[in-house]
Sequence to fold (479 residues):
Amino acid sequence: MKRSLAFISAFLFVAAPNSTQANDASPAKQAAVASIDRQATDMAELSDQIWAFAETALRETRSAALLADYAEAQGFEVERGVAGMPTAFVARYGKGRPIIGIMGEFDALPGISQKTQTTKEALEEGAAGHGCGHNLFGPASLAAAIAIKELIAAGDLKGTIRFYGTPAEENIGGKTYMIRAGLFDDVDIALAWHPDYEVSADTSGSQALVGFSVEFRGKTAHAAYDPWNARSALDGVELFTHAINLMREHVQPTVRMHYVITDGGNVPNVVPDYAKVWCWVRDSEHTGVDELVKRARAAAEGAALATETESSFTIQSGHYGMLVNLEGAKLIHENMVWLGPVKFTEQEHEFAREIQRETGVEPTGLRGNLEPLDLTRRAPEGGSTDVADVSWVVPTLYLLVTTAAHDAPWHAWPVVATGGMSIGHKGMVYAAKALAATMVDLYEKPEQRAAIVKEFEEQTKGFKFKFYIPEGPPPVPHD
Ligand SMILES: [Zn+2]
Fold:
């Protein structure tokens, strides 16, 4: 998923860049940023390899191994295959508190393979592609963790750094399984970032989501010879989706509902006795989603009754909406003000403009400047992430950095194109610096940590985490 501020209002709080801030940065912070500069070539190589592997959810074997091996070579203690997922891992360094965790994703999206060029052309027809920039996400977070590790090793910072290699964000949400396995239990503060077409300390949050499937079972027969003997499972699916589509009129404007029919029979002359629909429902809060699931269950039962079929309803995934930590956002914003804008070349802007012209978007190029900090709490725009689940367990800091042409379609070829070349690399290096600099503050300033934790504790008072994901191990494919 990716988040983005869609507009800027007059009410936004703007932290003015301070020319003396560069000198104010602690030696450790300066060293962390210098470490990222030293790692930049390695980061580009790692991200380009993951971009080329383009492995989808829970199949990210080579991508995960690449990052885990790299972390190990840098002196981290790496535990692989955690939480029942072969591609999930935790890399640890240091001891004692604070324990700061940083998350990295690396899964691709099916069917959007693309070359690093400004027109749509698959690198490999039908293959997957990094249309959400996760090839950049993992290496940037790991580089930031390495910068902190170096400072701990040198005795300049005290505590523990952990990198979480988190698979399957685009599908089942690997982080939720890692939470259930207790892997975040002792973490003081967690961080993540996401590729985007803007640079910001994100406060827009993300939607709560539940993913479920409904299977219908009927009776088969020849569709022309004796259709009266059949009861079509596809009819059940069609009536169910019709109910969902009528429901759209009678839900809050914040609701999103979308589905695909994954099984609708094989050939028209056989009445299908099995059909399946895969559906996601979202709203700003999990309470809203709970209500939608209840109504969808009733729609499934009603569709089965009317079509004389049987339905079964299975919840597959679910995430909370993001708990935005405003104290954390202020700290990230200060650090990004200190870093300055992401500097793209005219050639890179032109590359982005060509993509924008190609996709019918205003050719404005890339947005490298930091967006103003918005401290208003409001309903999130569309989109969900498993980072949000972590945000309800551990105070979580989240930032966005430009890696793609502004407003060009996301989860689509333009993002794959810019994520595999210098535009993506620059955003990735910037993200690593912003994360590393922010983490240095977290280690050096206990009062800063306390303010973030205090806000988190106030927001989660009385909250009990409920897992939407099904019981048992994650659905790891064995093909
Ligand atoms: Zn994403």
